[in-house]
Amino acid sequence: MERLQQILFFKEMGFSLKEIQKNLGHTDFYCKRALEVYLDILLQRKNAWKISSTQ
What span, in angstroms and rounded, lies between the C-alpha atoms of 15 and 46? Predict the structure, then answer.
């Protein structure tokens, strides 16, 4: 179940299944990189929300 959750988490962040499969064994690096990407996505959404709420 844990592996499925990881796959779904990374898929939601925009990683391809091929990327997930390739890097799932390298959890330390991959998780760190995935969290960095996820943070960027959240910041972009936050900025987009700020812009749309001020118009």
Answer: 20
